[in-house]
């Protein structure tokens, strides 16, 4: 049975969802984010003359909120990642939803910044959690790497020029951090000690690869672009990225220790959870 302490991740993620969605709704209704400058307009969906400019690309971001809440539901005080990290990741995944929706709903510059920054938060988290386990460090190591990842992404966002396929250097930095995290996970799996179930990692990469392929073809002028349809490739990108975040957490939570014969055993935290 889950104790009261184990409810904290879900309470935190649910509070994050309610507050962030509430603030976004007020910002959209009140025009707090500024004027429509066409931010996100390159992702095919035609802007409507309505409060929500791109409905499909906006509402599909609820997938991140659902994924974050599901992650929080599985987080326990005795599990992996540690509860404070699992709670943080769940909240960041939740924030991806309102962050991205802010751009697609308003097409404002401020909305665009919220969209990109929410992406940076999750990518920096994934890379930092790998470093934490590689060096067997603690909270200070994680926080230092997390801040460094954000700084790197912010610098990349300010580099001018368009990048083929990726569009911006910010997207390159985002993808680079995720690639570094994937390489680190494979390296950790090959090292003696606790192991994760890489099948979840493969599922996360497959979801991201599929999402990226559709993302690439669903931009303005792409073969999958249907500006006035409610079936948008960019909306599919949001949903598949939410699936990838869920799979990534499941990989982290699958950590097992290995005995001398190479067999998987559940850690003590999992054994105690059965009692």
TrEMBL record:
Its main location: membrane. InterPro entries: ACER. The chain crosses the membrane at residues 56-73, 85-104, 116-132, 139-157, 169-188, 200-218, 230-249. GO terms for biological process: ceramide metabolic process. The keyword Acyltransferase does not apply. Its cofactor is Zn(2+). Zn(2+) binds at residues 104, 234, 238. It is found in: Membrane. It is a multi-pass membrane protein. One of its GO terms (cellular component) is membrane. One of its GO terms (molecular function) is hydrolase activity, acting on carbon-nitrogen (but not peptide) bonds, in linear amides. Keywords: Hydrolase, Membrane, Metal-binding, Transmembrane, Transmembrane helix, Zinc. This is Ceramidase. It comes from Flexivirga aerilata. The lineage of its organism: Bacteria, Bacillati, Actinomycetota, Actinomycetes, Micrococcales.
């Amino acid at each position: 049975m889950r104790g009261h302490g184990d409810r904290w991740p879900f309470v935190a993620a649910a509070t994050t969802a309610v507050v962030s969605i509430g603030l976004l709704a007020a910002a959209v209704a009140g025009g707090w984010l500024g004027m429509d400058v066409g931010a996100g307009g390159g992702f095919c969906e035609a802007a409507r003359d309505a409060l929500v400019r791109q409905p499909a690309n906006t509402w599909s971001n609820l997938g991140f909120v659902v994924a974050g809440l599901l992650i929080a539901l599985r987080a326990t005080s005795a599990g992996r990642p540690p509860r404070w990290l699992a709670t943080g990741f769940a909240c960041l995944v939740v924030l991806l939803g309102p962050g991205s929706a802010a751009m697609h709903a308003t097409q404002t510059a401020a909305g665009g910044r919220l969209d990109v920054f929410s992406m940076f938060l999750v990518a920096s988290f994934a890379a930092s959690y790998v470093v934490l386990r590689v060096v067997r460090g603690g909270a200070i190591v994680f926080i230092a790497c997390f801040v460094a990842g954000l700084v790197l992404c912010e610098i990349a966002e300010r580099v001018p020029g368009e990048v083929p396929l990726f569009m911006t250097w910010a997207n390159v930095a985002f993808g680079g951090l995720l690639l570094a995290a994937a390489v680190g996970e494979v390296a950790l799996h090959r090292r003696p000690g606790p192991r994760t179930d890489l099948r979840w990692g493969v599922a996360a990469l497959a979801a991201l690869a599929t999402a990226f392929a559709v993302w690439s073809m669903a931009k303005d002028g792409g073969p999958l672009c249907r500006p006035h349809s409610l079936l948008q490739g960019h909306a599919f990108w949001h949903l598949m990225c939410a699936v990838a975040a869920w799979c990534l957490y499941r990989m982290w939570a699958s950590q097992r220790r290995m005995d001398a014969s190479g067999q998987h055993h559940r850690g003590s935290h999992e054994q105690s959870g059965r009692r």
